[in-house]
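Example (one chain per record):
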Amino acid sequence: MFQTSFEQPASAGLDAELFEDLDVSDPRFEDWIRGRRLASANPCRDGIDRSPSKAIPLLERRKTVAFIADCEGSGPARQLASRFFALASKAIGTQVRSVSFCEAGNATECETFDGAAQVIAMRSVVRDGAPRGSLSVTISDGSTGCVFWAESTQLVLDADESATSSEFYSMVLHATDAAVDMLVRGNGPADGHDLALRLFSSARLLTMTLDKENLALADRQCAAAFEMSPHGGPLAWRALIRQISHFQYMTCDFLPSHEPAGAIAARALEAFPGDPLAQCVGAHTEYLFGGNTCQAMRLAKRSIQANPLNALAWAALANLQTATSDYRSGYDSARRAVDLSAGTRATYFFEFYGCIAAAGLGNYQLAMRHARAAAQLSPSFAPPRRYMVALMASANDGLGFRGALRELRRIEPSFEMKLLLDGSYPVNTMRRIALIDNVEGRLRRGMAALLEHH
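Predicted structure:
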């Protein structure tokens, strides 16, 4: 059986401690770990059992999100508010399991939810105007009325158009993130589920730094989060960490465990088949490591259906659509991923998917803009720079090619153009689109000639 770095082997000495290599500066987490260590400790040498008489419970404390709509009787406005509530509840529900939702007439009703460990109120105000209306959202503590987040945007109040616009999706995503943050922080003692979600949130941020030590720590944090509160998200994310490590460094040897991405992704899907994150990471894994493209497409679509605000699922769908020659849909999906991630620490990651999809579409100038955006936001991110090299060579731009090659080799010193044609080199989608033909042509004509004339 696979053993993570957190599982203590039977031969471990008495000094070996649970999660001893995990460094998290959170007093509540440290208290939880202390209790788990006591509960799992071997009897002391003096024969006295000092372990707690009862197991430490990890009870889910029910939390409530109360939606309040202020639409002034406008039909399109009410439809937009309903769409907002539907998307927000889906997204929150995929991250915070012990949560329920209701629609309240006003903020004072939120105070009547007896038995809930926490109540937050999410109020949407939709105003019809000419030529554009507005959507404002505030999130407050249901018991005190204290507002801790607010944002507004302008929209065309056409139910079909506005409910699919990038501004609308961005607003819902930002509100969802704020609500989840408030629910996780809570206003009372944290339980195991809260602590697990905090660790998982930390792991996601660490992953996007691309730093090897941070990737390794993120893997450990996901394992610890899964140990506290088993669900698909942290487990699937460990597979994603391996995918990112493979594409950035072409090795996963620096991670604390060597279980392959495919095995972890499959385990997450088997144990949590309805989890949207397990589905979208499963879709990425199926495609990237030579699995069933049709199955990967099904997983990506199911993930989006469960949570339309998941940029990672839209990116998986974009890759699959591009790989199967549905180039326009591929770019539309990649554009949705970019829009959803705008302003976050992961924007660079999804700009790269925009580059891939635009290259598939044959719009190499657009592909270059996305690649440059990704490279500017994350200078050490290797994948877009590989595309920049190919795009510059395709454009017969010797000066640009020389600069792109120099920048890539700062990250990947051993890079040679012929690697783009190697099936083991991580440019899977490039080898499925016309851009690779241009690379092959350039290699046949000789790269030296390109450089000599500029």
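Caption: The beta strands are 63-70, 99-103, 118-127, 133-141, 147-155.
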